[in-house]
């Protein structure tokens, strides 16, 4: 017989899911927690349910809850919060339980994303600070260059006997200083580009590692689910064979008793 969830079953399932918080499980532990949820729900409702059944049921209840929230907000024009529902109700409804679960799940996702977002913000801030420092250094260097050029021009106008020499010498020095300034600017620019490229590579490696961890977790959960399904099938087969043997033994016993009575 196909098992069907009732509203009371759904409430018990959501209470257990809220209590055990499978969405906050560490790497590789989600399947174990869902199996524990299924075990506790089975004990409470006196019906055996599997890990996949409770997981799919929670997913369906969440989807229905979101659809109901959307219809409610479109119908009234005002989105009713979970706190408002709790204040208006004196009993625990299925919608409230699902809403509470969704809130906890979203909060857990935000907590997991906070370190990543903070790291991105720190990297962007460090890049901006480096650029600002380089720009300030270039501006100061350019201002010093202007001051040196002004002093050179003043000295040249005071000494008329060495006018030609005074004009040619600052020109050569100015050319050397300009070349050094350009080299310094290019060096700073290259350092910034190299630093940004290094940060990009580090971020790409981090994202690749997180994607690999996510894929490994999915593979592990899939393998555990397949193992649980296989164990359930094996258990059902063993139980069926045991019942068949018992029926056969009972039939043989009845047949022997009938033969004894006839004799």
TrEMBL record:
Compositionally biased region (Polar residues): 160-171
Region described as Disordered: 145-188, 244-263
Stated name of the protein: Uncharacterized protein
Organism name: Phytophthora nicotianae P1569
Organism placement in taxonomy: Eukaryota, Sar, Stramenopiles, Oomycota, Peronosporomycetes
């Amino acid at each position: 017989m196909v098992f069907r969830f009732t509203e009371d079953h759904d409430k018990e399932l959501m209470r257990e899911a809220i209590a055990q918080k499978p969405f906050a499980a560490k790497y590789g532990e989600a399947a174990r927690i869902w199996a524990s949820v299924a075990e506790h729900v089975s004990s409470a409702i006196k019906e055996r349910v599997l890990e996949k059944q409770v997981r799919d049921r929670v997913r369906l209840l969440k989807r229905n809850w979101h659809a109901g929230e959307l219809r409610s907000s479109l119908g009234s024009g005002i989105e009713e919060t979970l706190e408002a529902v709790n204040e208006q109700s004196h009993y625990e409804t299925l919608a409230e339980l699902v809403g509470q679960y969704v809130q906890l799940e979203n909060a857990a996702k935000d907590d997991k994303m906070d370190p990543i977002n903070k790291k991105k913000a720190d990297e962007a801030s460090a890049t901006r600070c480096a650029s600002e420092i380089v720009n300030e250094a270039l501006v100061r260097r350019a201002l010093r260059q202007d001051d040196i050029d002004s002093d050179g021009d003043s000295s040249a106008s005071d000494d008329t006997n060495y006018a030609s020499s005074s004009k040619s010498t600052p020109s050569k020095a100015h050319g050397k200083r300009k070349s050094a300034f350009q080299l310094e600017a290019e060096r700073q620019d290259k350092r910034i580009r190299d630093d940004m490229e290094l940060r990009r590579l580090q971020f790409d490696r981090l994202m690749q590692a997180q994607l690999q961890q996510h894929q490994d977790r999915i593979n592990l959960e899939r393998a555990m689910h397949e193992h649980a399904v296989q164990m359930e099938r094996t258990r059902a087969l063993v139980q069926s064979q045991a019942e068949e043997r018992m029926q056969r033994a009972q039939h043989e016993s009845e047949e022997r008793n009938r033969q004894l009575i006839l004799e």
